[in-house]
Amino acid sequence: MHPARPLLLAATLAFFSQFAYAQGPSADLTQLPEPVQATHAAMLAAARSGDLTALQAIIDSQSGSIQLGFGGAETAAAFATANSVTGDGLDALAELVDILELPYEAVDDGEGGQFYIWPYLASADLEKLTDADKVAAYQLINPDSLPDFIDYGGWLAMRTIIDEDGSWQAWVLGD
């Protein structure tokens, strides 16, 4: 994978909420490629444990890089604590658990492959959300924020991307 790809994927998701090749949300983890299932399970277990070093171990086991936010965080702990209300990063891990437990979206990467994004809302047309989609959104954000996201044209809350080869590509928040 090209080293700039994680940055490109995260930037794309920050600025565009619709993908021409999105396949629709799915909660069926068995439909994911095995490497994606394994990374998803490892991320979820690490986040649930509250162990930032376990999350970093996933990143360190990869051959490629990951984009951690848009502020230059170099480690999972740095990203989590920078985006933490409590200052210890545990609330950011709780949010990661929340997004990983929602449906994902399989997205064509435009190069013949796919990546998978959680929550699926990050690739949704926010102006066309169903009531069920809004309930999912309200699990993650204050209801007062959704109109701002719609005005912006995309999901600004936490999101994460896993490539089809199982590499964790991005964990970002904001634009």
Chain-averaged pLDDT: 88
- The shape is globular
The tally of domains stands at: 1
Enumerate how many helices there are, as a single number.
Answer: 7
Assign a percent range to the helix content: 40-55%
Q: Round the Cα radius of gyration to an integer and report it.
A: 15 Å
Class by SSE composition:
alpha+beta
The count of β-strands is 6
Order of helices and strands: HEHHEHHEEHHEE
| First-to-last CA distance | 23 Å
Strands ordered across the widest β-sheet:
1-3-4-5-6-2
Largest sheet: 6 strands, mixed
Beta-strand portion reads 15-25%
Low-confidence stretches: 1-8, 10-20
Explain this structure.
This protein is an alpha+beta fold and 175 residues long. The chain has one domain (5-172). Helices cover 41% and strands 15% of the residues. The protein has helices at residues 5-15, 34-49, 52-60, 76-82, 90-100, 131-140, 146-152; strands at residues 22-26, 67-68, 104-108, 114-118, 159-163, 168-172. It has a six-stranded mixed sheet.
